[in-house]
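Person: I have long wanted to understand how a fold can be written as tokens. Underneath my words sits a plain record pairing an amino acid chain with its backbone structure tokens. Those tokens are not coordinates but codes from a learned vocabulary of shapes. I should like you to check that the lines agree and flag anything odd. The protein I mean follows directly.
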Amino acid sequence: MPCSDITEVFEAHLDFDDRLLGYTLRKRTCGAAIGSVDLLAELFVGKDVATLLAMPHDHVGGFTGDVGDAAFLPVKHFAAMQTVLAAYVGRSGGRPVDPCTIASIAVAPDGVHLTAHVTIDAAVEAIRSCGNCGSCGSHKKSRGSLPVLGS
């Protein structure tokens, strides 16, 4: 696949009560991690899907992982997570083009394994007004709350 393919692969492992047991987020083209493959695992493992979908994006703003001061990667992971979980439970994001395609859902003895393809648009839509990454060239953007995807 060409590097211009901006689709990412999100894999989630849920228990039978729809609680997150783990996840990974990788680039579809080369399989490389985005930050780290499970950047937000310690914050969100054990939370159920309904709770994760109800959380605002600024919930991850205080994340102090291996990404310096920028909240871009944590918010990108969380936006991808919410987009995929919304599709998993059948909630539409209200967009004309769905940014998520469920590739597989498999039931195993330990729970549900979900694989989905997420376009970068889902994360960019949530991040564009945050002003934290500095890549837009403007450091004077508003730092208001970001919308919750899938609501």
